[in-house]
Task: structure prediction
Amino acid sequence: MPDYDVITVGAGHNALIASAYLAQAGYRVAVFERRDVVGGAVSTVETVPGYRFDLGGSAHILIRLTPVVEELGLERFGLEYIECDPLFFAPYPDGDSLFIHRSEERTIAELEAKFPGEGEAYARFLNEWRPFARTVRDLFLQTPDPLTLGRTALFGKAVQGDWRQALPRILAPYGELVDEYFQEEKVKAPLVWMAAQSGPPPGESMTSPFLLWHPLYHEGGMARPRGGSGMLTRALARHLVAHGAQVHTGAAVESIEVERGRARGVRVAGETYTARAVLSGAHALETFAKLLPEAHRPAAARRLRVGNGFGAVLRLALERPIRYSAHPGKEARVALQLLARDRLQVSAAYGDYLAGRPAHDPPIVAMTFSAVDDSLAPPGGEVLWLWAQYFPYDLSGGRGWDEIADEVAETILDTFEPYAPGTKASVVGSLFQHPLWLERELGLFRGNVMHLEMTLDQMFALRPFLGASGYRAPLAGLYLTGASTHPGGGIMGASGRNAARVLLRDLSARRAFALGAWRGRG
Result:
């Protein structure tokens, strides 16, 4: 008899979510994690005494569009969400600013008052593309079978009106689609900058869905786990233990063991642990190029496009809260702060990236969640996290990240300083997570926080590749979850939930088959 029903490789949030569903269903589950803490990129640590830094994703937006938290009852295991409203704040160098609130009506009214006509355009944009956004959400919450995806998208209620008119807009670059609705660059820039968070630049074709997702921000809102982003994964670990599962940290999986053409377990610290199925939440390259025996490595895995880095985040401990010149009030610090003067700044940063240079004038998403959670900093203090794009993993000119890290971190802070003067003088500690750091510490190959590039050829039924997109690897008994699988990166948990549903069906079918065979022998 195997040691477990399922062994999970890695303790990222998707791996933990899938494992939690399996344990909740009564299966014997063991999770093995290389690091000393669970969560992968959804973890929180006290890097600077008294200050708690997230090591990856911080704004919980996508998971709010799923039933994961409710289905797993994570509130019972210590997860407490704090609502954040406004959602977004965009300051400008001339002292102007705008807010996007959870309330559509308030956002529309404020935009209309500030930029006549733009509030009305925003309402039209939301109304026209809300059905499409909801359809994409629904597709994210199911296994990406090509027929199901096509039937849902083409014959569902994704588009109001004629598909022949909508399709060219869906296939357009998101940086251009905004021109169909808005006149004011100060309205276009934050919408485009949020769309850019998935990776592809504003001018790339077939990327407008990253913008057309926007109506769902008003539906799901944004929240923060009290105590840090890692409180989500700690709650998941508590859930697992409460349901009889084992969670091992500091326990790196050395290999996935294969016997008679089937994944039968893993090897950890020289010991072999067996299972009916193995679920890998590791990066697809880690799974296929390192953990599997060479004879079982699919050729398609060699063609995965990881890209050349993506972004970097400078995490700062401040002795006092920041104060924006454009809006000194607290509500600016509650929101995600979108610092992009215009679309040109975003595109120019991408141009630097293509040339192998760190962006010299990077657009920034600033986060100060100590504004809503005083457990993140000591009294009077602040945590300020500056996510900036675009930064290549491989650099031109023969220099490496260990050599230029301090210089680039200074550039990011210098870019932020004019928006909130005095910030630099209040810094008491920092952590700079550049692309090489992300690879070394979090296992994010080449510093891509999305694992694989989020382009159409690596999305839906093509993620990570055709034949492995249904959370089943080409090797029997091996299953996949995490950002390398549908629907990709971000704190959503859809991949974990979808993978668990596939595994639950397969395990129950195998259990029924085994029971029938046993009865037949009787």
The chain has a mean pLDDT of 94. Residues 494-521 form the longest helix (28 residues). The CA atoms of residues 278 and 478 lie 5 Å apart.
